[in-house]
Write a structure and sequence with these properties.
Blueprint (H helix, E strand, L loop, with lengths): L2 H7 L4 H10 L10 H16 L2 H18 L8 H5 L6 H14 L1 H13 L11 H36 L2 E2 L5 E2 L2 H18 L1
Antiparallel strand pairs: 1-2
Length: 195
């Protein structure tokens, strides 16, 4: 059984995860629209959902929630489990999942999702919402990181193509005209001064 199948048994689909992430989506360089964000999110979710360590942490959170509902966690009353002051452990578990997936950047994204509780997070219990929030936050953070990295690579590649030497049909190198425009101007000025 995959983690995605485990979540689907609990009413959480890949579409739910992607749509929840998109509710807090903010366009960034490299990922300017929902369609591109959804594409990258799906790929990043599939990567995270295939990680056995993510599976262990998410399943542990669901099991802890089941045990808490059944009164099996020592010292945790149902009132404290469901109310305020509530647990801190659930937040820490969500942060741990986000941090594992995306590093420290994932924690910042987790806070956004934990405070807003968009999409599927509203429907989950007190521990599982933080587990899924951590999963979504980590993946969302990776989406922004990946998109920005790809954006910069495209930009660098584009700049290199405009300024790199190119072979002519005779095998000699030539440079893009804009590359030499400042140097030619300086050379021309130098030649005028010598005359």
């Amino acid at each position: 059984m995959s983690l995605l199948e485990y979540l689907e048994e609990r009413g959480i689909t890949l579409d739910d995860l992607v749509n929840t992430a998109l509710e807090l989506f903010v366009p960034h360089p490299g990922v300017e629209n929902d369609k591109e964000a959804a594409r990258i999110l799906r790929e990043e979710f599939m990567d995270a959902l295939s990680d056995v360590n993510v599976s262990c942490m998410v399943v542990a959170c669901f099991r802890a929630e089941e045990d808490a509902r059944a009164g099996l966690i020592p010292g945790l009353s149902n009132e404290r489990f469901m109310g305020r002051p509530g647990l801190v452990a659930d937040e820490l578990l969500g942060m741990a999942i986000a941090c594992y997936i995306a590093g420290v950047k994932g924690i910042f994204e987790f806070i956004r999702f934990d405070q807003a509780k968009p999409g599927v997070l509203k429907k989950l219990g007190p521990i599982s919402n933080d587990a899924i929030g951590g999963l979504i936050a980590g993946v969302s953070s990776n989406m922004y990181t990946r998109a920005l990295r790809e954006y910069h690579i495209r930009k660098l590649t584009s700049n290199e193509e405009n300024s790199s030497p190119m072979r002519t049909s005779q095998g000699r190198f030539r440079r893009n005209k804009s590359y030499f425009s400042k140097k030619q101007t300086k050379r021309e000025r130098g030649n005028k001064l010598k005359k």
